[in-house]
Amino acid sequence: MTRVLLAEDDLVSSRLVQAQLQAAGYDVMVARSGDEALRLALAPDAPRLLLLDWMMPGLHGPEVIRRLRRLQPDRYRYAILLTQRAGGADLLSGFESGADDYVRKPCDPRELVARLRVGARIIELEDRLRASNMALARLADSDPLTGLPNRRHLLTELESASARCAEQQRPLGVAMVDIDHFKQVNDHHGHAVGDRVLCAVAERMRGRLRDDCTLGRFGGEEFLLVAPNADADAITAIGERLRAAIAEHPIAAGSATVSATISVGVACREPGVEISDAELVRSADAALYDAKRAGRNRVCQAWQESEADGPPALTAH
Question: All domains of the chain, ordered by start, with CATH?
Fold first, then answer.
């Protein structure tokens, strides 16, 4: 049942319009003043079709609409003013306040219902457009194979996490992850199996992370993890947890079973150390290649030199 918020201070008019709308199948919420209408309309579950009398005690109808548009600009409502005013200047001021339509009093119930149906269609179109835009934004930020954040989204998240950690004087950890011998998986089993292995590795790792961590596909078989508030010990422990999650069970990929492992390079920027985000990622990447050279299926850590040893830097081992 479509819901409508009716704001009308005249009791007789309010009951008449309410009865007409209920007869047409609407669920009607009633307010007796502009202030009450604003309070009800701001509620999370409030109706999004609004019928507002122009002149009411306290806030008048156009001011209610103006405040709603300002306070909740991302929540679209279809607002119709009920008015006895017929002048062009008055109606223009109502539209400038954010009203979508108006109905002259006394209301013809057929006209009122017809205009509400227009409003309902517009709200439905607005919701579809918003959902489509959100889906497009997710596609733009997501890797189409694994569903994880893509490189662009990862770098944006890294920048945001870096700024938050710097402001709060907290460490920031990152990890570079690479699937060992992934080319051999593709060569031996084919790219379809390789894609399934990529997805399975991504899903296992995602299930072992804290809520504040962001894991994404950095490119090919490489993943980047951004871990706010993770010092050197914490990011190393996270890396080890990811490594163990992949190594503990073979991956069933269609008709093939693949014993996959990962190598992980981790790095941490402690509070007060001036190292760029790009340098932090490069350090984790260097540590990753140390893990590869050391035999794979392991975690290698980068560390910060002390200020006594020279300018802050990250060195992998």
Answer: 3-140 (3.40.50.2300), 151-316 (3.30.70.270)
